């Protein structure tokens, strides 16, 4: 069964989406909208909502770029774990996946946060593990510069190990809470981690009972070799960033082939690329929607945005020249950057052509057409082993999500590709993922000191 994840993304994922007449008009700091988006997605039987995150207001050192900012670049937005706790109270089945960085946080705090959401939501929590590629994040966390990629991943690897270890702190039946005998907890069923590593020293145990899912789901999105290797070892789901079916097929085969050495079966990780959907009752309606949005992107904004992606100021160049040389990827290099530069070189695109390609979906593939045409494309990718599902990015909120749920979901259900109703008790079960056993499966474990 295909998995569908929804990214609420403020007022829309398209660069000009927030300016569209159908977009929510008020501030993105609106809990009601996040709840409404999650409820619409739940009506559409989506597996989960996913909130991306960062730890800084970006681009303030480039005033022209900053002035061209837009809501989905997140100059302002909720802290995801906090807002998803609130969403948990207004939804029943849909999973709640929040992003938290391993570079500027502590494993004990993160283990507590996600164990809490898992309890609050009765087993619907997921953690999108990111390492923070944006250099400016460091400046808010008492550092002068970001960690290099290898160090970020060394830290992330140890961080995730520690968090999983902390989630195993208590056996499921560790709290008998027997009023008659006066025994509240069973001291033989608590485990002290005693972790001393390169980056972290964490004694444990966690002061939260075992999460309903055993471990909340681990999502990852790192596309580098280190990122993929970590996902193959630890993740339940991985977001993809391919620009075509072929590139997603390669990434899918690659990530699944890395898992055996960690004793994992390929279907223990769901590969979920992002995709941007422009659907209409007719082809014309979909085309019109797409064009209306393109018209909302001024060339100035397009050039500024592309400059931001490729990490070079392109404003001094003629828009109809080929994309000029850009410096090689450095610490803050991203997979989107590499993909955009390679595409421009391969197809000899001008600056204008490049931003027009990238901007409609901020880098992810675009699918446009009637419900049947959109479903055909999703089916082709899914059956062609390019993915296990999709992270649906909605160009305008709430219109695009309402259209997807109202038009595309029924088509996928009719074809037997997507669930008609939720089954299972937890996000893990609904996504067809195994529930991890505690590392202390033998009796007793390490008694608390
Ligand atoms: C769908 C998707 C969502 C992502 N969400 C975030 C995010 O919320 N916060 C973040 O810092 N990075 C996010 N990233 C970036 C990745 O975590 C990662 O840093 C990036 O893909 C570069 O890969 P690398 O770190 O392995 O070089 C996302 C990437 C993708 C493809």
UniProtKB/TrEMBL annotation:
InterPro entries per UniProt: Diverse_substr_monoxygenases, Luciferase-like_dom, Luciferase-like_sf, NTA_MOA
Keyword terms, alphabetized: Flavoprotein, FMN, Monooxygenase, Oxidoreductase
Region (Disordered): 428-449
Binding site for FMN: 53, 99, 153, 224
Gene3D superfamilies, alphabetized: Luciferase-like domain
Coiled-coil annotated residue ranges, if any: none
Compositionally biased residues, Polar residues: 438-449
Superkingdom field: Bacteria
Domain named Luciferase-like: residues: 19-383
GO terms, molecular function: monooxygenase activity; oxidoreductase activity, acting on paired donors, with incorporation or reduction of molecular oxygen
Family under the similarity heading: Belongs to the NtaA/SnaA/DszA monooxygenase family.
Entry-linked PANTHER family: ALKANESULFONATE MONOOXYGENASE-RELATED, C2H2 FINGER DOMAIN TRANSCRIPTION FACTOR (EUROFUNG)-RELATED
Annotated protein name in UniProt: LLM class flavin-dependent oxidoreductase
Organism listed in the record: Rhodovarius crocodyli
Organism lineage: Bacteria, Pseudomonadati, Pseudomonadota, Alphaproteobacteria, Acetobacterales
């Amino acid at each position: 069964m295909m998995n569908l994840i929804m990214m609420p993304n403020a007022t829309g994922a398209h660069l000009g989406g927030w300016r569209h007449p159908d977009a929510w008009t008020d501030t993105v700091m609106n809990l009601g909208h996040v709840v409404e988006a999650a409820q619409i997605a739940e009506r559409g039987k989506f597996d989960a909502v996913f909130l991306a995150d960062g730890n800084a207001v970006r681009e303030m050192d480039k005033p022209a770029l900053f002035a061209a900012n837009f809501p989905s670049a997140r100059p302002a937005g909720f802290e995801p774990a906090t807002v998803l706790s609130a969403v948990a109270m207004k939804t029943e089945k849909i999973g709640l996946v929040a992003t938290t960085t391993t570079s500027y946080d502590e494993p004990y705090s993160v283990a507590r946060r996600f164990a809490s959401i898992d309890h609050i939501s009765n087993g619907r929590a997921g953690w999108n593990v990111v390492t923070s590629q944006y250099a400016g994040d460091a400046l808010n966390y008492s550092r002068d510069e970001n960690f290099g990629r290898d160090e970020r991943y060394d830290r992330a690897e140890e961080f995730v190990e520690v968090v999983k270890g902390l989630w195993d702190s208590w056996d499921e039946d560790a709290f008998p809470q027997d009023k008659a005998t006066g025994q509240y907890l069973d001291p033989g069923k608590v485990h002290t981690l005693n972790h001393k590593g390169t980056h972290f020293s964490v004694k444990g145990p966690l002061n939260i009972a075992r999460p309903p899912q055993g471990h909340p789901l681990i999502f990852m999105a790192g596309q580098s070799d280190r990122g993929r290797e970590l996902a193959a070892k630890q993740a339940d789901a991985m977001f993809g960033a391919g620009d075509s079916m072929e590139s997603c097929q390669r990434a899918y085969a690659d990530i699944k082939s890395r898992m055996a050495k960690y004793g994992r079966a390929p279907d223990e990780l769901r590969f979920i690329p992002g995709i941007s959907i422009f659907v209409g009752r007719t082809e014309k309606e979909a085309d019109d929607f797409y064009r209306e949005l393109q018209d909302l992107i001024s060339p100035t904004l397009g050039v500024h945005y592309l400059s931001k992606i490729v990490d070079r100021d392109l404003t001094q160049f003629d828009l109809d020249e080929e994309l000029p040389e850009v410096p090689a990827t450095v610490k803050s290099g991203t997979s989107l950057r590499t993909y955009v530069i390679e595409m421009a070189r391969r197809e000899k695109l001008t600056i204008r052509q490049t931003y027009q390609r990238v901007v409609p979906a901020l880098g992810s593939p675009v699918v446009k057409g009637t419900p049947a045409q959109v479903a055909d494309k999703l089916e082709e990718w899914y059956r062609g082993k390019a993915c296990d599902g999709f992270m649906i990015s909605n160009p305008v909120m709430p219109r695009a999500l309402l259209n997807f749920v109202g038009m595309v979901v029924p088509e996928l259900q009719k074809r037997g590709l997507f669930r008609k109703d939720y089954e299972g008790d937890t996000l893990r079960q609904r996504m067809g993922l195994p529930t991890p056993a505690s590392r202390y499966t033998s009796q007793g474990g390490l008694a608390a000191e």
